[in-house]
């Protein structure tokens, strides 16, 4: 007896500002200039070039985005959305279940590692805390409420709003909030990754942690975030070398073959990281083994994924800035299809041609949800400024005073 696809009930799912993506999933990194196939170099700077002094009141130049990370985020969110659409139709297809296992092995780890990488600059300063609140906490409250109301309207009138019990996709936002708050702690430890792995192991054998803030996922996915904090640009250069790209092909092929063999034997609950081993029906020691096994497998597949992410600007690079929209909004479509009994009404959707159709359709839909237009339309919910809610610090007040005389003079 297998667990029902837990992800379809409370599906996990895809990376912060400053040195963070522009939104929890979509805020961009500062661009790292590239030359050659995957090489990253520092642009040549004249030895004695003088840096012009900023003009008082002038708008600072925006940070340049890194095409590699925008490409990675867009491609990862496409995998996320496709896997979510496979959940209600994969029970009769061993091949689809195998692909689902492969995708779930790396798509969340990839997002979380990138989130950690761009959270390295989080230092509990007032500016960073403000961005954490507006970019993570506020979207969590809005979409946790929206998803609950949607379920109440479409399926369960008794569904209650609970900000302590994340539902469906919103778990990642609350997890990111907790992880980023603890960033200074991990950066102060001598060996943070072994400590994070130990915490994940303990969580995997502790069934009474409870559902508050989805702590099982927060703790079991923690090592990936901590690993991201430890990474440097040269690590991403390493996985994008030509020999790694070539090696990634047989590795992924072997993984797909193994997943096809394991599909009817392996409980999907392991890949959601939302339950202890005992809750999945396994002995406690299996949680220890699977934590390390999945961590190793996820890192290998994430490296294979990143190895084939283009480093140059592509037609979809601009969509990397809008992956938060793709992440949070596509869930309404997936859940809506289930509430409307779409898969029972049209059983052909569970056939191979139907599964291919759903895969392509969801890839198109999530692409549209990542567009700049959608990002602008939902900025109030995903990237609110909320300057009215925060006090200005002394530096900002001084800048405001400097700008007033300059503005009067220009007028």
Automatic annotation (TrEMBL):
Keywords, alphabetical: Acyltransferase, Membrane, Transferase, Transmembrane, Transmembrane helix
InterPro entries, per the entry: Acyl_transf_3_dom (IPR002656), Nod_factor_acetyltransferase (IPR052734)
UniProt-annotated stretches for the region Disordered: 1-62
Coiled-coil region: none
Record's compositionally biased regions (Low complexity): 22-52
Transmembrane segments: 68-86, 98-119, 131-149, 161-179, 244-263, 283-308, 315-334, 354-374
One Pfam family linked to the record: Acyl_transf_3
A single MF term (Gene Ontology): acyltransferase activity
Residues in Acyltransferase domain copies: 67-370
UniProt name for this protein: Acyltransferase family protein
Protein source organism: Streptomyces albidochromogenes
